[in-house]
Amino acid sequence: MGFIWFWLVAIMLVAYVVLDGFDLGVGILHLFLARNEQQRQLMLRSIGPVWDGNEVWLLAGGGTLYFAFPLVYASAFSGFYLALMIVLWLLIMRGISVELRMHINVGVWKSFFDGLFFFSSALLAIFYGAALANVIRGVPLQEDGYFFLPLWTNWRVGSQPGILDWYTVIGGVVALVALAVHGALYLAVKTEADLQQRSRTVARRLWMLLLVLTIVSLPASMIARADTLANYRAYPIAFLVPVVVLLALLGVIQFCRRGDDRKAFACSCVYLTVMLVGAAIGLYPRLLPSTTGTRYDITIDQALSGPHTLRVGLAWWAFGMCLAFTYFVIVYRMFRGKVSLEGGGYGH
Amino acid sequence: MDALLLHRIHFAFTITYHYLFPQLTMGLALLIVVLKTIAIRRKDERYNEAARFWAKIFAINFLIGVVTGIPMEFQFGTNWSQFSRTTGGVIGQPLAMEGVFSFFLESAFLGLFLFGEKRLSPWRHWASAFLVFVGSWISGFFIIVTNAWMQHPVAYRILPNGVYEVTSFWGLLTNPWALQQYAHNMSGAVITAAFVMCSVGAFYVLENRFSEHGKVFLRVGVIAGVIACVTQIFPTGDLHGRFMAKHQPAAVAAMEGLFSSQKGAPIVLIGQPNEERQSIDNPIVVNDVLSFLIYGTTKAEVKGLDQFPRDQWPAPLPLLFYSYHIMAGLGTYFALIMVVAAFLLWRGKLFQTRWVLWPLLLSFPLPYIANTAGWMTAEIGRQPWVVYGLIRTSEGYSKYVSSSNSLFTLLGFMGIYTVLSILFIVLVYRIIDKGPTIGEFPAVPKSVPTTVA
After folding, report:
1. Does the distance separating the beta carbons of A77 and B74 come in below 8 Å?
2. A83, A129, B169, B300: which could form a disulfide with B291 (CB 3.0–4.6 Å)?
3. Which domain holds residue A283?
4. Residue A73 falls within a domain, yes or no?
């Protein structure tokens, strides 16, 4: 049961990152990519009908973590208190900037929400990356299973780190660049002509940076946490993960150069998925490793809810996911193809 | 400052602000279905125009409701981690279901409803509105189930490691407290929507702008309002009050300001509870009524606060007393004004009767206050417990999140919500000022330009 729920939560978070990831990517890029009002509107339109549905994966994933592993939910959310609150504020800002921009046709109003959209998307990407890096590095758990991290201390990875240190900042930057590339590839799929060309160019330029950062992140993780590769050494087949990561990255650049945007975007989805799966393999069976000694690690067994809760949960979860999947297929089908400013397209 | 108090204020502030929006969207979702049904059955285009107008107001409220709702789910973990840790196996379940089922449903069909009218047949568009209504009402149900378990825990057991788990999922969903609270709460949401609709309708009629639509709003708002206002008192309020008297007697004693047990207990209409002297200052009372309301006979004994140890009194007691009285007082006013308005509507005189249109115009803030006061009654009444009789609130908060950190984020939320309020008022004012669009489809899609620069 613990094994199943570990991976179910992981799948939901991966779905969130892959789906909302391109919304964030579009937000990160739109100030630089769009040359005029029309292009800006096209970019917003490309995510307009889907972003809020994508965000539901975060809620659904959070809720599932809550009832399947209450200890982790309680410990991590209170321990990362300040960062989490900032993430909540950024999610509010992102939501209103996407939706309210078009309500008043005044330049200053629109520019304000454009700026807010960029600011909130970029910081969200950085915070998500840093959050994952925090979990990989571990947190100073106490005997009672709780901890509290300040936003930063001395920026070093030690037994009493801050939420931001050199390692988690690397994690944040990796996420920022990875989601920017992801968003650019999504835009290349959804747009045409000038905007499409510019999206491809941005994706290609950022790709180099992403490659370097991805390669750097592996040794960085090993420095931040010596036993990162323990599971990999025990099950060498797991070394397929870095191989697939690199192949996916190569696929991104190859397909992008050839102008096969859908495949390039698919490769980017694979890249994000496998990066996260790689982290999950490194963690298993821990959910929240400790920097204060392995005896304080929170493992699946410790955090798992009671058996009846999980059985019931599995039943409705499977049903709910079928519904959610159907919904996604319908929405994305209605919204398939290129976006344009004229009517047509999903719901416009 | 006291950490426990700050965590309570943190949750209270964010949830109170959040619930200003869902109470309107849940009620409005139903009224929009009503408008669309009448439009189809009577083939009256004014009702479609009215539905489109209210859909715009709905969309903005829905957005603010969504963005302020996300922090709620995470605050269980951030500010109430000890409580989440022990009870996550129970209440995490309905919260996750809210995300997985109803939220997906709403997000999916809201898009279709708001922007799909041109492409869908009238009945299919009606169906999309209906599914938005169903989604939002299911959503409300899961939240109520969560709260009801904290008020009246059922279908649980405690595992050896001190963690709670569900023993019967069906039992959790059919918690009698949840069913009563749900009925009372949803009729409260309809009251908010009805008063808001009446207020805009009265504005248009008094102003003699869009007065044909204003009359539609008034007609639908008054009829829905009178039904919901009566339902709010009887049976939902009555049932819920009696059930509460049985299961949370200390809360009821504090709500009513009954310090000592009495046969033929009086009801206090107004007054100020004095905790030191254990009496009500400046009271206006009616004898025997409380006994009658709870037990159906004027002679029955009602338990007063003297029956309960001091550390089980709800706190802050005066705030509970006032919340309950504000809720009940406003609820009575709502029923009166709506009955009068409904009578005049039936006689065909409502649209000319200015002394009723004016109160209808001005009353729209009151249901928000009443709904908020009702929730404060429920939540303060539950104190000092976070899960009634099982876990004290003082054992639930995040002990490693200091009061200073909690204050920091509380101020942050206050700032952001102030900005949200300003944006909200500006946008809703523009919609009301512009009025319903006559004879054409709406042209305010989301993230899409109305004009291309």
Report:
1. yes
2. B300
3. 2-334
4. yes
Give the pLDDT confidence of A161-175 residue by residue, as tens digits. 889 999 999 999 999
For B170-199, give one letter per residue: b (16+ CB within 10 A) or e: eebbebebbbbbbbbbbbbbbbbbbbbbbb
Structure confidence at residue B439 (pLDDT): 72
Burial class (CB in 10 A: 0-12, 13-18, 19+), B161: exposed
A112 at interface of B, judged by CB pairs closer than 8 A: no
Whether residue A341 lies inside any domain: the answer is no
Say what the pTM is.
Answer: 0.94
Range 101-120 of B in CB contact (< 8 A) with A: 101, 103-105, 107-108, 111-112, 114-116, 119
For an interface test with A, which of B58, B63, B67, B128 has the most A Cβ atoms less than 10 Å from its Cβ? B67
Q: Kindly state the tokens that stand for B189.
A: 């949401």
Q: Which amino acid is at B434?
A: K
Number of domains in chain B: 1
Judge whether A210 lies within some domain: yes
Question: Which residue in chain B is spatially nearest to A334 when comparing CA positions?
Answer: B112
| pLDDT score at B119 | 79
Bridge-based pairing state of the strands B262-263 and B301-302: antiparallel
Peptide bond between residue B22 and the one before it cis (omega within 30 degrees of 0): no
Asked if residue B274 is part of any domain, the answer here is no
Task: Give chain B's radius of gyration (CA, Å).
Answer: 23
Residue A145, chain B, CB below 8 Å: the answer is yes
CA distance B259 to B256: 9
The string of pLDDT tens digits covering residues B37-53 is 999 999 999 999 999 99
The domain total for chain A is 1
Q: Do the domain assignments include residue A151?
A: yes
pLDDT at site B397? 95
- What is the domain range of residue B414? 3-232+365-434
Where do the DSSP E strands lie in chain A? 286-288, 298-299
Q: Where are the alpha helices (DSSP H) in chain A?
A: 2-33, 37-47, 51-68, 70-79, 81-100, 107-137, 166-190, 193-224, 230-234, 240-258, 261-283, 300-303, 307-334
Of A306, A283, A321, whose CA–CA distance to A69 is shortest? A306
The DSSP bridge pattern shows strands A298-299 and B156-158 to be unpaired
Interface of A with B in 200-239 (CB under 8 A): none
Amino acid, single-letter form, for residue B24: L
Query: What is the DSSP code (8-state) at residue B270?
Result: E
User: pLDDT by residue (tens digit) across B236-264?
Assistant: 999 999 999 999 999 999 999 999 998 88
